[in-house]
Amino acid sequence: MSRIDRWLRREPDGTVTVLTGKVEIGQGITTALAQIVADELGMPVSRVRVAPVDTDVSPDEGVTSGSRSIEESGVTLQRVAAEARRATLEGDPDPFAREVRGDGAPRPASERTVLGRHVPRADVLAKVTGAPSYVQDLRLPGMVHARVVRPPAYDAALVALDEAALRALPGVVAVVRDGSFAAVAAEREEQAIRALMEARRIAGWEAKPSLPATTDPRFLLSEPSEEIVVEDGTVTGDRTHGAEYSRPFIAHAAIAPSCAVALLDGGRYTVWSHTQGPHQLKHEIAKILRVDPAAVRVIHMEGAGCYGHNGADDAGVDAALVARALPGRPVRLQWMRDDEFAWEPYGTAMVVRLSARLDGERIADWSHELWGHGHGNRPNPSLPKEVSTSIAARHLARSFTAAVAPRPRSNLSGGQRNAVPYYDIPAKRVVNHYVPKAALRVSSLRSLGAHANVFAIESFMDELAERAGADPLEFRLRHLTDPRAREALTTACAMADWRAGERGNGTRGRGMAFARYKNNAVYAAMVAEVELRDVLAVTRVWAAVDAGLAVSPDGVVNQTEGGIVQAVSWTLKEAVRFDRERVTSRGWEDYPILTFSETPEVEVRLIQRETEPPLGVGEGLAGPVSAAIANAVANASGLRLRDMPFTRERIVAALG
Amino acid sequence: MNGRDVAAAAHPETRLLLVLRNDLGLVGTRYGCGTGHCGSCFVLLDGRPVASCQLALGTVAGRDVTTVEGLATGEAPHALQRAFVEEQAIQCGYCASGVLISAKALLDANPRPTDAEIRAALDGNLCRCGAQTRMVRAVRRAAAELAR
After folding, report:
1. pLDDT digits over A15-59, tens only?
2. How close A595 gets to chain B, by Cα (Å)?
3. Which has the least CB within 10 A, A90, A245, A531, B66?
């Protein structure tokens, strides 16, 4: 057992420091966790500080992902704080030193003063006044600037590099070369960039074509796959309707390229990183540098929003590899924009094939087949010793085997997330054709398989409603018994003033969608309005979310709005481009995202449930957004879009 | 620089962005792409928003540069910065400096912009978290406050 001060420490000035394993990634988690602790201890939020994760002192609570931080760390902290409060009430002179018993009873809802109320995030003022806020801003005495010289293509090997020529450039303090891994470090940042450009110019690489001949996700259908029966209902050969949907590889495309600062001092590495899993990264660095994990300390500092596993961990490994060559000097390793686009692990392309049989007014059976690579290919201490998820590891002379994005462990994970429709249907058959050998590097992108699965399911629900001659709202309600699901859906439709059977006018229309994330978390429903101009525009979105007890209501609304806008961007514009050798999306001009003028008006209503457990909210919106847009286009024009992104070229092609 | 004369010793070809961050301690101006496409590194150059990653140090000598740190008056944040706090108009906040610079230039030229004008003025700034609707609301709030 652990003591309370494993999580909560009372400082000499009477404030409380919270130690959590979860990290701030722009989602506002530190504010929500402070609210939970403050409420339980009966203190003002301003007297509670959430410490950044430091592997030397913070608990290992796994990776900050899957919208689980409130459900996991939040609930743990609430119980621990309840025990601290009880110990205080019992007159314990040192209540935070008590052993945690695991029987803490949180205050009843009626006694709460902070939880579920609006508490402004304390970090906003610093961030809008330009204060140092991100690992990118860290400046240490004697710090040098480093860049990695990545290969021009995935499978390119470094065959020639004139290291002496690079060392002769102004300011260069180190040229690191280990197999096909190369990096430069210089006193000044512009000198490091110049050395990088020169290295790119003079390096000799041997590349071989290894990527699919087409960017159409249907290449997945002919790849070797493992069949996983997710749900084994009996489906007859009699089909009323069938359709196929797809999404391309999608990039996280964080606004800031990844960065880390690493220092080798006294035989120990300290790495400042915007990783989502500091403890996992610590073990990854130790593995790749072949040192004892005790010789690595990872300290979290914020980066830009990440929306899943981007280049953060890789930059941490890269920085440590350069720091090894420069003991005593902090190394700030910054990825270039093209590094981030070309090397980050994308969210996998997917194909979903649905069919169903209608029996009168209701769906009698449902078949869902999906094809895709794995997700969740993050640094993982339980992988075999010579297997690694990091890019650098596969380029070193003594290289590691590249880890394969894993097979889903359950119906909640990977490509199977939300593959089973939440609707009451007598027979469902769901099969995942998991394609282990990934065409591009893939890992976790916000919502994992739920995006494509819900996009397909919710598009198909509208298609079936039309065949049943029913209004899409009424048709969904026919198949939904969960009262919270029904309320989310009817709330969103009421906000939009949805009229049963409403039809678009040829260019303008509206569509709806619903999902319960992971079938066990946040309920999200929405109506989207679109306009077919020379391009497809999403003009308005009305959304209702039920996240149980919303600890920080404005935080939930902010996450919901952001999730909606980002998914509008995915749906309308985004696809990673590549040729036979390399990713060709290297900058914003090759990978455009939604602009301010293209952003819809978004109205969110929070269904606050003070007595229900809190549910994470960040990922629940993506699938419904894409389907609501597709349904709105069909409602406007009769055109059914099933392949994302819905670009002008796609729409023109679909119109024939 | 933000109303003061400053000197920096770097090669004249060095990008202003790097001089701000590495020599002048002004890290609020941020690197996003280095190609002028994202707006994270916007500063006001003689009142106009420009990408500091595209500006050679030699070309800004003798000119007025304002960074996000220079929007405040002493310790008092600018109305735009206060409005961003009031509206909680960020998620990660990495793009915010550049957005504020574009918004400042807009309000200086057009104190009562429509929503469409605000959006158009911010089209050179990318936000990946999806805080656009809040940011537009914050700019509207600041405009109203400045008009009082």
Report:
1. 999 999 999 988 889 999 999 999 999 999 999 999 999 999 999
2. 6
3. A90
C-alpha A313/C-alpha A318 separation (Å) is: 9
* Residue among A26, A128, A563 minimizing CB distance to B85: A128
Question: End-to-end CA distance of chain B, in Å?
Answer: 29
Distance, CA of A614 to CA of A547 (rounded, Å): 6
pLDDT grade for A67, boundaries at 50, 70 and 90: confident
pLDDT of residue A70: 86
Question: Average pLDDT of B127-145?
Answer: 98
Instruction: Looking at the complex, report in whole angstroms how far the Cα of residue B20 sits from the nearest Cα belonging to chain A.
Output: 11
Instruction: Classify each residue of A366-389 as buried b or exposed e, where b means 16 or more C-beta atoms within 10 Å of its C-beta.
Output: bbbbbbbbbbbbbbbeebeeeebb
The residue type at A496: A
Residues of B in contact with A133 (CB under 8 A): 93
Instruction: Give the C-alpha separation, A111 to A115, whole Å.
Output: 10
Nearest chain B CA: its distance from A162 CA (Å): 25
Rg (alpha carbons) of chain B, rounded to whole number: 15
Please identify among residues 70-99 of chain B the ones whose CB lies closer than 8 Å to any CB of chain A.
71-72, 77, 81, 84-85, 88-97
Closest CA to A77 of A16, A165, A139, A154: A16
For the stretch B52-102, pLDDT in tens is 999 999 999 999 999 999 999 988 999 999 999 999 999 999 999 999 999
**pLDDT for residue A1 is more than 70:** no
Q: Write down the H helix ranges in A21-162.
A: 29-41, 69, 75-89, 124-128
Nearest CA-CA partner of A372 in A316, A302, A432: A432
Instruction: Please check whether residue A561 touches B, CB under 8 A.
Output: yes
What is the C-alpha to C-alpha distance for residues B138 and B142, in angstroms, rounded to an integer? 6
Candidates A515, A542, A537; CA nearest to A527 is A542
CA distance A583 to A549: 43
> Do A263 and A331 touch, CB atoms closer than 8 A?
yes
The CA angle A45-A271-B32, to the nearest 5 degrees, is: 80
**Is beta strand A387-388 parallel, antiparallel or unpaired with respect to A401-402?**
parallel
User: What pLDDT sits at residue A294?
Assistant: 98
User: Which alpha helices (H) appear in B1-148, and where do they start and end?
Assistant: 16-22, 57-60, 79-86, 96-109, 115-121, 132-147
CB A255 within 8 A of CB A652: no
What's the rounded mean pLDDT across residues A103-120? 89
- The answer, for B35 touching chain A at a CB cutoff of 8 Å, is yes
Pick B129's closest partner by Cβ from A128, A190, A305.
A305
Query: pLDDT class for A509, splitting at 50, 70, 90?
Result: very high
Identify any residues that bridge with A181 across adjacent strands, giving them in sequence order: A178
Burial of A534 (0-12, 13-18, 19+ CB in 10 A): exposed
What letter does residue A103 receive in the DSSP assignment? Answer: -
Residues in chain A, how many?
656
Q: Which helix (H) or strand (E) holds A188?
A: none
Only one residue has tokens 């449930």, namely: A609
pLDDT over 90 at A656, yes or no: no
Put residue A527 in one of left, alpha, beta given phi > 0 → left and psi -120 to 50 → alpha.
Answer: beta
* Record: contact A304-B92, CB cut-off 8 A: yes
Contact B31, B8 (CB under 8 A): no
Instruction: Let me know: does A4 contact A85? Beta carbons within 8 Å.
Output: no
Residue A105 has a CB neighbour count (10 Å cut-off) of 11
The yes-or-no verdict on residue A487 having pLDDT over 70 is yes
Distance CA A332, CA A319 (A): 7
Look at the pTM and tell me if it is higher than 0.90. Answer: yes
Q: What is the mean pLDDT of residues B92-114?
A: 98
